[in-house]
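Practice problem: Stage V sporulation protein AC
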Amino acid sequence: MDKDYKKYVDEISPKPKYLKNYILAFIVGGIICVIGEVINDLYMKFLQLDKMASAGATSITLIFIGAFLTGLGVYDLIGKRAGAGSIIPITGFANSIVSPAMEYKREGYVLGVGANLFKIAGPVLVYGIGSSILCGFVYYIVTLIK
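Answer key — structure tokens:
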């Protein structure tokens, strides 16, 4: 019975269009990266920022744009079409922070937005920061041994 049901489900389930999804993810992710490069170049040219300062300002700007578009409901529409192309860049990180906060804003700023702000991105931050500390510690020990 299980095999028949699985076969039936496989027959009626829509088949994903992998090639189309890959191409859309590549194009949208590329467009986001090109926008980031343009912003970076503008910061370096017009504000006379060095590479490090320009990179930081560009990251902050892209995070703001991703959060702003999420607040307007536009980033979710982009994500439905682009998939990983919109999730992988830093704008996807902004979206993962803002989306849960927007969902619970009716419950108030402290218990709604504040409590749910890092629901999705929190584990990423914890493990990212923790692993960077661990890698830094290992690097420090290795350089002491040399």
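Discussion: The mean pLDDT is 86. Students who identified this feature from the tokens alone can consider the problem solved.
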